[in-house]
Amino acid sequence: MKRFALGFVVALIVLPIVCLAYFSLGFSQIRVDAKPSALETAVLRAAVRASVRRSAAGVPSPPAANDDDIVAGGKLYVLGCQGCHGDLGGPYQEDNDLYPAPPQLTHAGTQYSEPELYWIVKHGVRMTGMSAYGPFYSEKELWSLAAFLRRIDKLPREMIEKVRQKKAG
Amino acid sequence: MKNFIAGFFAGTLALIVGVLGYLRLGLLDVRSDAAIPDRTARFLYSGIHASVRRTAPKLQSPLPQNDETLIAGGKLYLNDCVGCHGEPGKPPSDFGATFYPPAPQFSRVGTKYSEAEVFWVAKHGIRRTGMAAQGSSYSDPKLWSLAAFISRFPNLPPHVLEEIQQKPTK
Q1: N or C end of chain B: smaller count of CB under 10 Å?
Q2: Which residues of B touch A39 (CB under 8 A)?
Q3: For B22, which residue in chain A has the nearest alpha carbon?
Q4: What are the structural domains, with CATH classification, of chain A?
């Protein structure tokens, strides 16, 4: 039994050291242009999902969004987000220049709720290409963007047209 | 000995279950706007550098080492990199700071990567950061000129900086 406990403790100490050393010595692959394994994607995506759900639980529910808010959010999307997340109204095109690849929201939509989207845009997602936009957008803008993103793959055509109109009046 | 091995396996299993559970329960903080602890930053940056050193082939730039090369690279830098990595002579980029880990500010601190390493990173990108692979957007010669420019920060000849900062008199 003593031996068993010793083996247990040695594993707890040695394995983390091996992992840290593996990374420190440069054995980990860091180039972007190779796809993450299905296992890595599944584990990390679930981790982000769970963490966002936990962190955004305290975010108050969104102000009810009307069409104008959604269009305003859409305009922000076109200016600031579509370079990575997919052109509004454009064809599906995977972006493999970042690792993990940014979700193509215009086609895939999102499983996140409005408060969660607000939280992600505001705070960003660590160790991805998703930076924090809190310093650059007002609260109102963040909420309108969240309202737009929530509906991004289900927008009626005339809404998309409205968003894409240059200077509407 | 048998017991030791059994214990080792049990410990391994416990670690894996522990890590997966920690992740699955959402206990890992994923926000990128929290300050990165110094030790974590050092660990990440040095691990990335070690991997680049190991992987990047030690190539010689095919371009001539002259001002034209630096100016061509500088123009690319001003067009596409300053948003995150900082503009020469300006305060650090606010946008670059909102990534986790933050984008290094080359124009202030330079880089310890060699020219061939900068070329490799620009071409292939860095996983799990905001650094995208540029190989699909730029040809190799363009990336080499960029590498020449970036790897000489912060010791670029002043007339090169002046030349590239002249606003579009193309």
Answers
A1: C
A2: none
A3: A47
A4: 37-164 (1.10.760.10)
CA distances from A168 to A142, A164, A165 (A): 21, 9, 6
Q: Among residues A145, A140, A94, which one has the least CA distance to residue A120? A: A145
For residue B20, what are the contacts with CB-CB under 8 A and spacing of at least 6?
A: A43
* pTM for this entry: 0.91
| Local structure of B33: helix, strand or coil | coil
| Phi, psi dihedrals of residue B124, rounded to the nearest 5° | -100, -15
DSSP string, B83-97: HHH--TTSPPPTTGG
Query: Which residue from B minimizes the CA distance to A51?
Result: B26
Give me the interface pTM, i.e. the ipTM.
0.89
The string of pLDDT tens digits covering residues B47-78 is 999 999 999 999 999 999 999 999 999 999 99
DSSP code, position B141? H
A57 burial (CB, 10 Å; 0-12 / 13-18 / 19+) is: exposed
Going by C-alpha positions, the residue among A53, A162, A43, A32 that lies closest to residue A115 is A53
The answer to whether residues B94 and B88 touch, using CB atoms and an 8 Å cutoff, is: no
Query: Which residue, A35, A144, A128, is CA-closest to A79?
Result: A144
| The residue type at B80 | D
* Three-class secondary structure of residue A65 per DSSP: coil
- Our CA-based measurement puts residue A135 at a distance from the nearest CA of chain B, in whole angstroms, of 8
CA A72 to chain centre: 20
In angstroms, what is the C-alpha Rg of chain A?
21
CB neighbour list of residue A153: distance below 8 Å, 6 or more residues apart: A105, A106, A107, A108, A109, A110
Interface contact B47-A28, CB threshold 8 A:
yes
